[in-house]
Amino acid sequence: MIKFDQITLQRGSQPLIEAADLTLHSGQRYGLVGRNGAGKTSLFKLLLGQLQLDSGQLTWPPTMRMAHMAQELGGVERTTLDHVLDGDLALRQTEAAIAKAEAAHDEKALAHVYADYDHAGGYTAVNRAQQLLQGLGFPEQDWSLPVGSFSGGWRVRLNLAQALMCPSDLLLLDEPTNHLDLDATMWLESWLQKYQGTLLLVSHDRDFLDQVVEVIVHLDHKRLTSYRGNYAAFERQKAERMAQQQVMYAKQQTEIAHIESFIRRFKAKASKAKQAQGRVKALERMEKIAPAYADSPFTFRFPEFERTSSTLLDLDQVSIGYEKPILHANMTLLHDSRYALLGPNGAGKSSLIKTLVGDLNPLSGSVTQGEHLKIGYFAQHQLEALDLEANGILHLQRLKPKASEQELRNFLGSFGWQGERVFEPVKHFSGGEKVRLALAMIALQKPNLLLLDEPTNHLDLEARHALTMALQAYEGALVVISHDRHLLRQVVDQYWLVANGKVKEFEGDLQDYQAQVQSLALAQAKNKIEAKRAEPQAGNNELLTTLERKELKRQQAEHRKQLSPLKKSIAKLEKDIDTWQAKLDLLEAELAQPNLYQSENKATLKDLLSQQAHASEQHEACEEQWLEQQDRLESMTQ
Fold first, then answer.
1. Under CATH, which architecture does the 311-506 domain have?
2. Does the structure show a pLDDT above 70 at 145?
3. With 80 as the cut, is the pLDDT of residue 162 above it?
4. pLDDT of the residue at 281
5. Of the given ranges (23-37, 297-311, 354-368), which has the lowest mean pLDDT?
6. Closest by alpha carbon to 478, among 464, 488, 463?
7. Is the model's pLDDT at 304 over the cut of 60?
8. Quick check: 550 pLDDT over 60?
9. Residue 288 near residue 459 (C-beta atoms within 8 A)
10. How many helices (H) and strands (E) does the chain have?
11. Residue 506 contacts by C-beta under 8 Å, 6 or more apart in sequence?
12. Ranges 81-85, 296-300, 305-309, 472-476: which has the least confidence
């Protein structure tokens, strides 16, 4: 158990957290949320020993093992696999002890250290590290590459894998999904659901929080407040609390106005001066209730474009790649198309977006643009192209030189810049502020097609909500790559699956896609078993390691869990079909009675016919649902 007792943390002379209490119970998974700059990272640094309390007390078990994502990268010449294995310090220390004992030919010491090596999971360590790398999107051919050969986002993934490799009782993760694609995000989600220690997670991905955490800790107004449940439960509880707070605030304001009125009326009268002074002291002692406020300070908008074309882009037998094709596409984007791109890492999603933009010329085939096509393109590399010395206003003036300064200030205001902050140079911006400026620059140009490659990276929950609302209201075409499933569900209508060198429409939703990914992982695990069985075995070597068997069982259990609700639904529909069929049989038997068609039984006949029509309709509806569910089950079990 970790206990924060009346803690205060300051940044300079300003308190970030003041007289706050919090208890983190062993084995619970916590999500830490709050506005950017509220102090979430400072709280992490406190736990890591990088900051000291200004007051209060922090206590935890003396034997607690802690793991976290490193901000810096170690030796860039280390291989990817070795870098991940370095996360298990106990393992590396045991390996060093083995090397020392072997060099000294100390058989007794060797017996002890090999026992320690076994206890540290040394015999399965490489297998565990490989599974982490595979889950986070590193193909097998990358495991021997030096760390220095990877770009910034991939290095973040390596540090995440290293943190997960470290045996821990407390795991601290600060925005772990920022540089992950959807497949890797879903894998990490599954991994964290099985984590046995205490998890403290900072994330701006609502769906990720919903699936992983059990308690939300809200850092707000310098206090820490716990809410039982996931992020969706937190939002409901917070809304109820805010509504209650607003009522209490209004009541208190009425009371304050009444007291102030008494003070103004009677403080000059000698007979009432004492009572008036008492009211002043009562007013000073009163604990003020803050008014409830709307969470998001942002109101993003994509202004209405002037013209559009019925067909914005048409790709005819296009081969996409650099020196050789990695993807073949034959697709059309209409003026109202709203697609998300799904698919594993490296399948070509970003290359497809670049081809749509025109940054990557097709190797073959043709790309035809609509007459009035106007593209708004966002990708992470565009943040590096911002002028670090220029301010937000200047960036917009370069795009729209005829616009007045006030017009541009108003526009920037909706993206979160108020007052003199519009003149602050970009070099002082956070990652989220750079994203918001890039989005503002896109919106200013009134595109009729938005191509967005991971637009939510670095955005906090409020900014993501504002972007979601803006994209919902946007009337143009949209193609988006994102690991934020909440955003995808809210803003797109259809999905394209980019896999195995092709682009095709995906028939299903994100839940179906997750089930498909898990089914594929299960099939790959089975193939691995078959391959091992086919190999000639030496001595008494096991066909499969203990860890591999556990992983296969886990994947099988996960797959059964995915199929269980579907099978239950099918079973219920089968019962309903039988029930309605029995009802129809009974009604047909009654309708076969000759005396039913005599004039005096007209009302009964009408009622029976009505019942038959209703039963037939229900029977047909259940059969249609049953067929749909069966098709879905078959697609998930292939």
1. 3-Layer(aba) Sandwich (3.40)
2. yes
3. yes
4. 60
5. 297-311
6. 488
7. yes
8. no
9. no
10. 20, 18
11. 342, 494, 495, 496, 497, 512, 513
12. 296-300
Task: Write the DSSP symbol of residue 30.
Answer: E
What gap in Å lies between CA 23 and CA 217, rounded to an integer?
10
CA distance 538 to 446: 67
- pLDDT at position 637: 61
Structure tokens at 59: 């206590």
Q: What does the H/E/C string look like for 376-422?
A: EEECCHHHHCCCCCCEHHHHHHHHCCCCCHHHHHHHHHHCCCCHHHH
The pair phi, psi for residue 3, each rounded to 5°, is: -125, 125
Cβ-proximal residues to 325 (8 Å cutoff; 6+ apart), any chain:
319, 363, 364, 501
Quick count: other Cβ atoms within 10 Å of Cβ 284? 7
Mean pLDDT calculated for residue range 531-560:
54
Tokens at 271, concatenated: 């007979």
Note the pLDDT of residue 460. 84
Higher pLDDT, 398 or 574: 398
More confident residue, 634 or 93: 93
How many residues appear in the chain? Answer: 638
Instruction: Specify the 3-state DSSP secondary structure of 570.
Output: helix
Q: What is the SS3 string spanning 458-506?
A: CCCHHHHHHHHHHHHHCCCEEEEECCCHHHHHHHCCEEEEEECCEEEEE
Over range 349-365, report the average pLDDT.
92
Quickly tell me which residue has 């509504």 as its tokens.
243
pLDDT category, 507, cuts 50, 70, 90?
Answer: confident
Produce one character per residue of 49-71: b if its CB has 16 or more CB atoms within 10 Å, e if not. eebebeebeeebeeeeebbbbee
Taking alpha carbons only, the member of 37, 487, 492, 429 closest to residue 300 is 487
Q: Provide, for the chain, the percentages of residues in helix, strand and coil under a 3-state DSSP scheme, each rounded to the nearest 5.
A: 50, 20, 30
Give burial (CB, 10 Å; 0-12/13-18/19+) of 580: buried
Q: How far apart are CA 284 and CA 281, in angstroms?
A: 5
Q: Among 3.20.20.150, 3.30.2160.10, 3.40.50.300, 3.40.390.10, what is the CATH number of 2-234?
A: 3.40.50.300
- Residue 261, classed as helix, strand or coil, is helix
CB within 8 A of 558, min separation 6: which ones?
Answer: 190, 518
Q: How far is 51 from 454, CA to CA, in rounded Å? A: 33
Which phi and psi (to 5°) does residue 305 adopt? -75, 160
Of the candidates 313, 228, 181, which has an alpha carbon nearest to the alpha carbon of residue 30?
228
| Dist. CA 380–CA 474, nearest whole Å | 21
